[in-house]
Amino acid sequence: MNTRDLPAPPPSTPALPLSLSDLVVERVGFGIFVLDRDMNVLMWNRFMQDHSGVAAADVIGRPVFERFADLPRAWLTRKVESVFQLGSFAFSSWEQRPYLFRFDHDRPITGGVDYMQQDCTFMPLMREREVIAVCVTVSDVTHVSVMQREREDAVARLREYADRDGLTGIANRRFFEGRLADEFARWQRYGGEMSMLLFDLDHFKKINDEFGHVAGDTVLRAMAQRVAQVVRKQDVFGRFGGEEFALLLPCTPLDDALHVAEKIRRTIGDAPVEVQGVVVPVTASVGAAAARPGAPDYEVMINEADAALYRAKHQGRNRCVALVHELS
């Protein structure tokens, strides 16, 4: 074949300028700096310069701690040294350590963070299978961290609202029974004492009929606030439904529960509730029951406290009654 029949060779690709990679490093939207084994800075890109206020010329060739004394010295040294020793990547999330450098961020002050939240990657730079330096990248994840915190706060608020009674703000029945079930299971396993109270406002229907449902709601809120101020931190106080309330008393024998019941009865009944200039007298009846051997589940306690409450109503109201089981 005549050489004139051969296709012309493709034009050669022009050589890339050597400064292009440097330009990329300078323009990327995250921090890049390189450290040797003595923690001296070998490279410092534009992101690091702009956010730290320290020019590359003022930091390259010097220990990074010389210009940034507030860096976590021990942690950063260990992190870099581990990359030198193992020759593998390392990573640090903002969730583990919120930031490496105290850089300002562009989020509103309402974001709830003081400094830019940062993810950091530590990469070994190899030459002939030997780590000669460690490249550290610093990514600004402030937006991600703020969004995640806001989402977690929203979920927590929703969970709290799901556990609270909308009218009184105390625990609702679902949450109360969940805690009662947990405490009953713990009592079955470890023993000890546990009691609960059920109480409601006497003649509450009459209050609604005579003063109106708005007044009735005000009375319920006032009663809940009064009782919440006298119960212990470890107790669980909830609205069981309507004008009925429940109080879980962990590590409390029945005799002590009766003392608590009497305290609650007096707290409710000693002072009337004033609603829009009208004085509404209020009293309460209380039933008490305790966990006892042989009871198959926590619902037995509810039923027995309810039976004690019924007796208190039957005996004239405005009193406390405990359901006591005789030992055979």
Automatic annotation (TrEMBL):
The Enzyme Commission number assigned here is 2.7.7.65
Instruction: Name one cellular component (GO) term.
Output: plasma membrane
- Reaction(s) catalysed by this chain's protein: 2 GTP = 3',3'-c-di-GMP + 2 diphosphate
Q: Where is the GGDEF domain?
A: 192-326
Q: Which GO terms describe its biological process?
A: cell adhesion involved in single-species biofilm formation; negative regulation of bacterial-type flagellum-dependent cell motility
Q: Per its UniProt record, what SUPFAM superfamilies does this chain match?
A: Nucleotide cyclase, PYP-like sensor domain (PAS domain)
Question: InterPro entries annotated for this entry?
Answer: Diguanylate_Cyclase, GGDEF_dom, Nucleotide_cyclase, PAS, PAS-like_dom_sf, PAS_4, Rev_trsase/Diguanyl_cyclase
What Gene3D superfamilies does the database record attribute to this sequence? Answer: 3.30.70.270, PAS domain (3.30.450.20)
Q: What class of enzyme is it?
A: transferase
List, in alphabetical order, the Gene Ontology terms for molecular function in this entry: diguanylate cyclase activity
Domain (PAS) ranges: 24-87
> What name does UniProt use for this protein?
diguanylate cyclase
Query: What species does this protein belong to?
Result: Paraburkholderia silviterrae
